[in-house]
Amino acid sequence: MFAILGAWARYGQTIAVQDIFGRSFPIATLSINVIGSFLMAFLFTITLEKLNVSGPVRTGMLTGGVGGYTTFSTFSLETYALIQAGHLVKGATYIILSLLLGLLAVILGVWLAHR
User: Fold this and answer.
1) Phi then psi for 60, rounded to 5 degrees?
2) Which of 33, 58, 95, 103 is the most exposed place for a label (fewest CB within 10 A)?
3) Tally of structural domains, the chain
């Protein structure tokens, strides 16, 4: 259920933002990634420290709901956790590898699709 809500939210926001700002810059995806990162951090912290939420509901909200909205939020939270734990090199490596390998995967996917 949470994943469906997250996916619908992403779709609705994409349509709305593109209607307002157009498609010349991926502002819809950027806004989803930023809002999703905020929601992931906020809900992760508040459900861990302040609210009594069962494990399955918490997982559903975070992994299903926010993860269905954007997986970038998980990337952001994991990077933050590495940095908070004092693993600056690991955090930087994770950022660089995620961006470079993701871009290379896109290039490979397009190349293979054209073959």
Assistant:
1) -60, -45
2) 103
3) 2
